[in-house]
Amino acid sequence: MSQALTLERISHHETHIVPIVVEISNRLTRISQQRIKSSKYSAVRSIQCEVREGILYLSGQVSSYYLKQLAQEAVRSIEGVGRISNCVEVAYSGPLSTDCSDSSSQLVSLRLKHS
Hints:
4 helices
């Protein structure tokens, strides 16, 4: 009988704990998003934040690893965030060269000059 009573007490307390955890996660998400939105870089401001179980997930897309790191640094010091999962994608949007012969021949000539 005491075991059933203990399980009943635990499940009763869990119903009160879950809303508190959700509330804390929501608050940390808002704080994180505010930090991101205050960046001077527009690409960083487009990143989304979500806190689940103490882990801050960053998502979105930027054009450089520098901007990805800036986003992470903006939220790194938030108290209550146990870990950051930076899922921001880096997608270069500039023109890509399809002719590599010029650049490789320049590299070879530079090596020969310095030998």
